[in-house]
Structure formats: structure tokens, C-alpha cells
Amino acid sequence: MVQLLALVWRRLLRKRWVLGVVFGLSLIYFLSSTFKQEERAVQDRNVPKAPDEDHPIAWKVQFNAANGSRPSNQCRNSVQGKLLITDELGYICERKDLLVNGCCDVDAPSAKLYSCESCLGNGCCSIYEACVSCCLQPNKQRLLERFLNRAGVSFRNLFMAVEDHFELCLAKCRTSSQSVQHENTYRDPIAKYCYGEFPPELLPV
User: Fold this and answer.
1) DSSP class of 162
2) Phi and psi, residue 18, nearest 5°
3) Contacts 24+ apart (CB under 8 A), 47-52
4) Most exposed residue of 12, 29, 107, 117, measured as fewest CB within 10 angstroms of its CB?
């Protein structure tokens, strides 16, 4: 059976029209592969590239008096603090003085507006909630804008997600690669929460 098929195949290959069909199919396959590769190359050229450090990124953050778009009787806050909480209006208070609407009770003895306690002149603080509260001061807007405009591509995904001053301060004050040296040691083990433009000075090795 196999020999019979081989004999038929050899006879077919001797006919010119069969060779023409084989050649035509090969040509079609070659041309289609070439066109597909060209399309892929064009698509790759059209994919938008990530902005480099020399060009400012279109940040979402909007600075405004209320720091957010939530109803005035509701507040977002820094949530995770066991002892202290900072709300989006800039008040820091003890957790026990947090109202049911998420805002600090401004009449409570512990409540302070735009508190920079535990913060150094470079914008680094030893208490996360104080960092957020201090960062929310209206006069910090230009400092934050300068930081955003200079931020490298590595921070693009983090800061493109923020939508207002409060969210930016929450993100900026969290410890990040800017707060550490050698990947496992804080630049400043005490004041490690920073809203400033630049990271803390490197500790001597």
C-alpha cells in the first residue's frame, strides 16, 4: 500500500500543474508570513512608550481645599494606625477620638490640624500619621508638585493612581525604596516616613 502511494506521488510530481500548485501554495505561505511580521513590527512601533525621566508625567492628582471629592460630612482617613489617625482634612487625633463619619473630633484634646510633630526639616517624620497631617498643609503643594514633576519612571505606577492631595500624602509617607539603603536598612531608622522632595541622607557605611 505504501509503495503504491509513493508511486502515485512520484507520478504526480512529474506533472507540471502539480508543481505549479505546490509552488503557488509555497509562495502564498511566504507572502502571508511576511505580511504578518510587518504588521507586528508596525504595532510594536505604535505602542506608546513609557515616559522617560526628562518629560513630566500627566499626574491625576488635583490639589484643592477639601483634599477630596467626598461629601463634607464624611472623611477618609489613614485607617491603619493603632493609636493615631489622620483624616483627609489634615486633622490628626487619637483613634478613640475618631467620629463615626471617619473624621477626627476637632474638639477633642488630641486633635491637631496639620501637625508636624515628630517631623524634621527635610520632611521626614517618625510617626506616619504626623507625616500625612503635615503633608496636607496647603503650603506643601508646590513642594509636592516639584516632587511629582521630578519623580522617576519607577514611581510612575504608584503616583499615577492617586487622585488628590490626601491620597498623594498617604502614598508619599509610606515607606518605600526611597526610605532604605542597601535594601534592608532605613536611611534614618527614626524618621522613616517622608513627604519631602528628597529621601533622607544616607547613613555612613
Assistant:
1) -
2) -70, -45
3) 50/153, 50/156, 51/153, 51/156, 52/153
4) 107
